[in-house]
Queue: 3 jobs
Job 1
Amino acid sequence: MKHLTLNHLLRIAAVALLAFGLISGAVPALAETANWQQHMPEHIPGGDAAALIIPVVAILMVFGAPALAVILIALFVFRHRERRQQLLNERIQKFLEAGQPVPENLMEDALPSPVRNLNQGLVLLGAGIGLTVFLTLMTGFAIGSIGLILVGMGLAKILIWKLAERQAQ
């Protein structure tokens, strides 16, 4: 049996969420349109089918299009990362088959560097503080506290960098 990777599990979850969103948005709309004839004028251009199709298509577009866009973006990002890692592995394999030493810059790309954690942590920390201040001034702390998520992620990345630095010493 083929092993399920994280990428496959994310794809399955994304399709399931999309299907759930479409169904949960369309089913109440179809139930609402069960009595559609009492709300319609006598003559509808396109006939009775248009009166039923228009609300269903509108609901699917309102709920389905944003979910589909998010799923497609995530899919492209994961495919790009997977392909980049595959190419890196192929390059390293070619060096090993030829009996040559693997260049250090290829190995550095394969493993995350502690400096990358520091950079990402500082960017997340700055973005989180900025977002928190902006949203708090514009809407109040209830909405502004969303930026604290980024602050927490930034602090976690900086902590990871600090712990890796200590472990290296």
Job 2
Amino acid sequence: MGKRNNILAAAEQLLAERGFYGLSMKVLADKAGIAAGTIYRYFDNKEMLMAELHQHITQEAAQTAFQGWSEQHSEKQKYDILWRNVFDAVRANPQRLAVMDMLYCMPHINQRNTDLLQDDAFLPFIEFFKKGIDEKRFHDWPIAALTALSFDSSINLAKKVLQERLEITEQLLTQVCDASWMIIQATPQHNLTTIND
């Protein structure tokens, strides 16, 4: 890992642990194992560091979300891959959600730039929903609303598992994923795994 990425990784961890105002450049330098002055070779100030951290997280999140994605897959297969990847990502790195929420709330960062749906890295995700709407398979609703109904279920399910409030099974994962797919359909679909199967 290069120094720049090392700084970003350390910043993400400290932000999750201490929040924005508890993250000083000295503490960050100590965490990254570098001299404090080295940080300024890569980032002009703390605000620029936070903006770069957001971009870094977004790029990594997109790579994770689209792992295994292929245009050769059916629309349902694409959805399942994205949904499962999001679920696994939250379980593997729960602190990242907290960091992303903090970055979104920082007044010096343009909130439009902290919206994953506005980032080019997630363009295939947007096109996936637009195609579904255009083909009248998905409800003709704002993509943010469709996302809230579909992929937010993956995030929230992972949170419940992490909080040990839910014991997850492969069957339950499939059922919740299928249910979240069905709810965004303009026309109800059948033949998916049911709760009583």
Job 3
Amino acid sequence: MELKAVIIGLILHATVFVTQGQVADHAVVLASASESSMYVAADAIEVTNQIDVYPNPSTDFIIVKIDNSTLKKVVFQLHSMIGNTVDVKAEEVGKNRYKIDLRTFSSGYYFLIIEDEQSQFKEAYKFLKK
């Protein structure tokens, strides 16, 4: 009997089908008393590469903080809303914390692209430069 697994407190982009007793992505699957649904213990899931970009809006710089990082060689790019791309140098200001100087950039919205080729990681973060 296939039952839909639900992650408590998290939203998934895909539905996972498991049977009672299986492990879904290293999380324990528990059946409800009615066995019409199953729940995955949320504390069993480890989230990696949690990224915060702040302050937003920004004036002089942004800080990029990466918690639970599996990234090896991080590269940063800025993309303006009109499509201009600029490679930026990030100053490492702590373990998995980077500071990017924005003083030479015009005011407006930008996308910060964070990429690591070795782990095939690539994400974009929108911020406002005042």
